[in-house]
Amino acid sequence: MGMFLNSSVPREGYKEVLRDPYFVDKTLILKELVPYFGKRNRYCCITRPRRFGKTVMANMVGAFFGKSDEGERIFENLAISREQEYKAHCHQHETIYIDFSKMPKDCREYERYIARIQNGIIEDLIAAYPDLDVSKTEAVWDGLQRIYEQTKGKFLFVLDEWDAVFHMPFVSGMNQQEFLLFLKNMLKDQPYVEFAYMTGVLPIAKYSSGSERNMFVEYDMVTSEKFSGYFGFSDAKVDRLYEIYQNESGTPKFDREELRLWYDGYYTAAGNRLYNPRSVVLALTDGQLRNYWTSSGPYDELFYYIRNNIEDVRNDLALMVSGERVEADIGQFAAVSMEISSREQIYSAMVVYGLLTYEDGAVLIPNKELMDRFNELVLPFSPQQISG
């Protein structure tokens, strides 16, 4: 086991989730991923708003498929253990796990950031394959190709927070393009790639120019029905979690309907409604309904942009804050340097980040948690300013 190759990080991360009393078993997605292995469409990118379980899922994928000396104990009582894919694939694959949000100590430049990944993977390969002459100075893809040529062994890639680099203050536009080229060189059409599972907030298709990243099939919440049931919580799942809360608390501090009003309301491409999973778990754990949104760069920048461009969207905001829907043409958006120049781009960005939701050609504020956020950050205006 190494820092990236068959790392203990996803396994330990998923074990923490398993210990949570409000754990929800979503391991059957593993069965749905297996048919992609070794196929032309073996590159899977799933994008969701922040706090929708992306890292939990990436940890689960890495923990299940990655080789381990712990046997099958982590998954033996979960739904996947009753499927034929369990014995065939659990801990059976050489797996490279990368969390792109992690940085070296005191990192202030892109070169140090990407060198940590490049050098770390090479060091892991040298340790795992000491007889194959992998060089410390060669590129990751050359080292992986060298191993494949001599062993025909393939690798799974689990890539979490692929878009983190686009929000790092020291990363320039040129660095961003270098990062995308790094992904292309490491993954595209490489025979050693058995499967690549990538997740983040921003849609990778926005960044694809020519053929650089078009190997990925992207599944987002607005346009893709596949995998939609594995991210976020359904009503049925929250019903069960609320029963656990009732049993553990003795005297519940809020009822089931209040939980729905606070955290439900995100629509999938299939038209189903979902709850924000992290907020639900925190509310049940704390026994308190409140706003669990935490500040972060891109979210605060979006609100800053809206406050300073209120003329473009003020009437729409007044309608949404009153509970109405607003018609909008939502396209794929990726917030590189917050390049927002139109009403549609504002709303597209807010849907991507989970600040709004989208259904049947309209955007809306999904729930009370987000409504409070809008009231706090977006509408410090008088009624005359809003109504025009």
Provide structural commentary.
The chain is built from 15 helices and ten strands. It is an alpha/beta fold. A hairpin with a 2-residue loop joins strand 9 (357-359) and strand 10. It folds into three domains: 9-229, 3-Layer(aba) Sandwich (Rossmann fold); 232-286, no CATH class; 297-387, no CATH class. Helices cover 41% and strands 10% of the residues. It has helices at residues 9-18, 29-33, 54-65, 85-89, 110-128, 140-151, 173-187, 235-249, 256-263, 277-286, 297-307, 310-321, 343-352, 368-377, 383-387, and strands at 43-47, 94-99, 155-160, 193-200, 217-219, 266-267, 273-274, 326-327, 357-359, 362-364. The strands form three sheets. Strands 2-3-4-1-5 form a five-stranded parallel beta sheet, covered by helices on one side. The protein is globular and about 65 Å long. The termini are far apart.
Write the layout of secondary structure elements.
Elements: H1 9-18, H2 29-33, E1 43-47, H3 54-65, H4 85-89, E2 94-99, H5 110-128, H6 140-151, E3 155-160, H7 173-187, E4 193-200, E5 217-219, H8 235-249, H9 256-263, E6 266-267, E7 273-274, H10 277-286, H11 297-307, H12 310-321, E8 326-327, H13 343-352, E9 357-359, E10 362-364, H14 368-377, H15 383-387
Parallel strand pairs: 1-4, 1-5, 2-3, 3-4
Antiparallel strand pairs: 6-7, 8-10, 9-10
Would you kindly provide a brief summary of this structure?
With 388 residues, this protein is α/β, with parallel strands linked by helices. Helix content is 41%, strand content 10%. The protein contains 15 helices and ten strands.
